[in-house]
Amino acid sequence: MLGTYHLGLSVSELAKLPAIEVEAVDRGTKHRYTGILVWDILNQFRAQLGDALPDSVPSIVVRVTGPDNYSVDFALTEFDPAFSDRSIVLAERQDGSPLPENALPFRFLSGVTEEHGSYNQHSATEAAGGALALPLLEKAARDLVLDPDDRPVVVVDYGSSQGKNSLAPMRAAIAILRKRTSARRPICVVHVDLAENDFSTLFGVLHSSADSYLSQDQDVFPSAVGRSFYRPVLPPGHVHLGWSSYAAVWLSRAPTMVPGHFWIPSSTGAVRAAFGLQAVEDWKTFLKLRARELRAGGRLVVVLPSAPDEGKLQIHAGMNHINAVLAEMVAEGAIAAEERERMLLLSYPRSTSELLAPFARGGRFENLVVEQREIFKVQDPGWMDYERDQDREKLAAKHTGFFRATFMPSLASALASDRGAEGRQFFIDRLADGLKKRLVAEPMPLDLLAQAILLAKEAHK
Ligand SMILES: C[S@@+](CC[C@H](N)C(=O)[O-])C[C@H]1O[C@@H](n2cnc3c(N)ncnc32)[C@H](O)[C@@H]1O
Fold first, then answer.
1. What are the backbone angles phi and psi of residue 91, rounded to the nearest 5°?
2. Segments of the chain scoring below 50 in pLDDT
3. Which atom of ligand 1 is nearest to the CA of 229?
């Protein structure tokens, strides 16, 4: 998308561009795709634009929209062979034949949480995991290198959602930083999330909540960036302290689909391997970008749900219930089979070894050094109440709220676009209702594992 310019290439002009072949996995099967490098197509547009090309190439966004109106935005540089080792191709043929009707479409699968403050009300589990990692954040705030002048100290919350779970970590970090600085040195807190995030709720919470980090200190300045953290979100060398809790578990894109399910950990074989590779690439991208944004001597703390080395995550049973309810909804005609097939949760809980893999050589990656890492068992607050009151309805309502607020909006993003907001709401209500009935019948604890890593950017580079 180039401002308001209208550019086009005819089929015969496209046919003149060099065709290339790439191998990729679609729904678990490897295929050979023939097509044109999107970079070559963009270069044709560049030639048509001539001097009208905007100066700021890095700010150009390319929006790819499929026939079903799903669209996804790419930074221009993602297509540039000089910046990326991926070949992004406009494919025309699969294994020598025209692409099948159901070829994997582009779509949004973002992990954006349920709006109108719903995530804030139903994220006690994530809050409990984040709380266990606070000592790492406090250590980071104590140890980070602070320049002696009075320029603002920058703290960034990557993947903030609606802000409630950011209050305690930001308060803890600010309390320590304030002791290390003059009383009036500005502290800037930047909340980063996807553009679709419910930022109005976030600012409402910051300005009205009694435990907001703003209530005690008038020299703290909040702001937000609506942009994926798989792109640069702040200038190089800008950030003193980064915090990211339960966010980098969301992958940037789907390399394939999970046959018969929507939950990556339920996949096996080549499908599992394709997501594993995507998770490796995304984690390295996340770290590289944060390393660039951190100042020398800065610190980054990342908290993530952890996959056990053996056995299944406890959350798995809930995901299977949701899968069963989705099958009921297809059978009832509440959703179409194609809509169900498009559903995928891009959440990928990593094992400890996957988390540490980039640091395998001497504990360093991109000027980042591992200072500390921890693994925690996050006790289910709802189950502790249930053991006292034996109230199945209440427990099921709490667990349903967690699945609903965190995961269901991503599933709803696969619905046909003409269903609109009302259709998506109906879908979420029906899915949550079906899940709750199943959870009332089978109460279970949702004890999860979390892991946290504290990284320091080397001071001398
Ligand atoms: C489960 S919430 C975690 C919120 C909060 N940090 C917490 O600990 O409760 C995950 C958040 O990560 C955001 N997220 C997912 N992918 C992202 C991306 N690529 N860039 C920025 N934010 C992203 C989602 O929109 C969502 O708000």
1. -80, 145
2. 1-2, 27-28, 68-70, 102, 104-109
3. 20
